[in-house]
Design brief:
about 550 residues
Length: about 550
């Protein structure tokens, strides 16, 4: 189970299996109809509430889970990190000879739910809205937007061209830049101001025009959101169920008992309750993941009370103090994988040779951790914890509800090398609000995770002054290496960056756990609907009805 998997960024790509559009050729006959009750975060993270459905203004993965069902991506990226044009709004990309010109052609068969075609007018609306929103848009200053874009031009109803300010890495720009140009319904949204859009974040009427497989039916704050199929959906993967309900539960235990009672038919099985899975006699288990991202212990580098984290020797010591194999055994019951950098290891297509070697041998070395802390000038005090200039090496770790096992294990490991960890539970929404509030700088550490796009650079989370950099981390050398990824073809620049990231540990990367998903035995298509990348596509689910 992914005990630390919380996603804070807007996912603009959909990581799915390469055969996502095709149903099994053999097996039971697919039936239509029925309602499935699930929870936000299925296949991805512990449950939480949804708070808004406008992809231009939200950054929570829980909100994005519903948004992905309402709006089809410009590029649908499969698990091999290739664009599946059958499921994409775009039908092809033509790259200019100097890698500065990118002409995108749209497939003419896509339509909005009110029958109006999806065209470049919708793409242009998105582009101009992103420019208008600026840093208010969660993806600002990542993927080349807007700094690397010189011009955007509509060439016709089904073609547009983006010209960059300089030659860029085509693969990176297509997967992390052009993918931001998701078409949204211009004819429905363009009459609203940004304030009005914020005021209508949960208004079902505002979201009545969609081009994805589902539309929002009802929303009750703090309780649930329900979705129904979009009858005018143009894609090949039309939903089979009649209704999907996301119940807003907030703890592992509540999900388990909701599964046991049948009030929820599909949800994550909490890892601590993995041995109790046999009590769910009406359910089947699906093991998925690890998800495409990284779990981490993150620090507020602007807080003077934990200034010791600015020393790279301290952060390296923390990395070597973490027994990842033990975490996988205890937290994931053996279902997990080591991780030391921001580039996920599964699949290993982006891993450098150094990263592969480190993952194979592991980094757990408490003797080295002690040596590094001594070199940093922090020595053991009478109580065993390290001291320097009258200060104890200690920090307060904020954790979402029901996540105490992982941090407790981590605190025990740190205590062995002389670092004191205090823990405090806080609801995810409250914790996230504290982190992103520029006036709230008194928090010290968080136990969270980050989702990656299909070209895993981390976006602006680690960039000096980056929009998503709630940690106030700044490393000019790292910024320069990230910038080089944008302009260098091939993977060499990405390899160098990920190796430097692992050396610097701007966040202490933790192991990736697999996720346990339980579904009622009459629900089919779970392995297709819950992807290894952590995406949820309920259009592939169907219910077998008793005859």
């Amino acid at each position: 189970m992914k005990l630390t998997k919380f996603n804070q960024v807007l996912l603009v790509l959909s990581l799915v299996g390469s055969g996502a559009a095709a149903h099994a050729a053999t097996g039971p006959v697919i039936q239509n109809g029925g309602t499935i009750v699930t929870v936000p975060g299925v296949g991805l993270a512990p449950p939480s509430a949804m708070n808004g459905f406008n992809p231009l203004l939200t950054s929570s993965a829980y909100d994005n889970e519903a948004e992905n069902l309402m709006y089809q991506p410009l590029f649908w990226v499969n698990r091999d990190f290739k664009i599946n044009f059958k499921l994409s709004i775009a039908k092809k990309i033509v790259v200019g000879p100097k890698h500065r010109s990118y002409t995108v052609y749209l497939s003419p068969h896509w339509k909005w739910s009110d029958g109006i075609p999806v065209t470049t007018a919708d793409v242009a609306y998105t582009y101009h809205m992103l420019m208008k929103l600026g840093p208010l848009w969660p993806g600002w200053d990542s993927g080349g937007f807007p700094g690397d874009i010189q011009s955007f031009k509509v060439l016709g109803p089904y073609a547009f061209r983006v010209v960059t300010t300089h030659p860029v890495n085509p693969t990176w720009f297509e997967l992390s830049g052009l993918s931001d140009f998701i078409p949204y319904p211009a004819h429905s949204w363009q009459k609203y101001t940004v304030k009005q859009m914020n005021d209508n974040m949960t208004n079902t009427k505002f979201f009545s025009v969609v081009d994805g497989p589902f539309r929002l039916e009802n929303f009750q704050a703090g309780r649930y959101a329900s979705m129904v199929p979009n009858p005018a959906y143009s894609g090949p993967d039309k939903p089979h169920i009649s209704r999907l309900i996301f119940r807003f539960l907030h703890s592992y235990a509540s999900v388990f008992f909701a599964l046991k009672s049948g009030t929820v038919q599909l949800g994550n099985l909490p890892a601590p309750l993995y041995p109790a899975r046999k009590q769910l006699t009406d359910d089947r288990l699906t093991i998925t993941g690890p998800n495409w991202g990284f779990n981490y212990l993150g620090f507020n580098f602007s807080n003077p009370n934990i200034a010791f984290v600015n020393n790279v020797l301290v952060r390296q010591a923390m990395m070597h103090a973490v027994n990842q194999d033990l975490m996988i055994k205890v937290l994931g019951f053996g279902h997990g994988a080591r991780a030391y950098g921001l580039v996920p290891g599964n699949p290993p297509v982006y891993l450098s040779s150094e990263a592969k070697a480190l993952l194979k041998q592991g980094a757990y070395d408490p003797a080295l951790a002690n040596k590094l802390l001594n070199e940093a000038g922090w020595h053991r005090g009478p109580d065993g914890f390290r001291e320097k200039d009258g200060h104890i090496m200690a920090f307060t770790l904020y954790i979402p509800p029901s996540m105490i096992r992982g941090p407790t294990l981590l605190a025990t490991m740190f205590a062995k090398v002389g670092i004191l960890v205090r823990m405090r539970e806080m609801p995810f929404n409250e914790l996230y609000a504290k982190m992103i509030n520029p006036h709230s700088k008194n928090w010290q550490a968080v136990y969270l995770a980050w989702s990656q796009t299909a070209y895993p650079t981390g976006g602006s989370i680690f960039k000096c002054g980056g929009v998503q950099n709630s940690y106030h981390y700044c490393n000019k050398k790292m910024d320069a290496m990230m910038d080089k990824i944008r302009i260098t073809r091939g993977l060499d620049a990405l390899y160098k960056f990920q190796n430097y990231f692992t050396e610097q540990q701007p966040v202490i990367v933790l192991p990736n756990m697999k996720l346990f998903v339980m579904a009622n035995k009459n629900i089919h298509g779970v392995s297709q609907a819950v992807t290894p990348g952590g995406s949820f596509y309920p259009q592939f689910l169907w219910i077998s009805h008793a005859k």
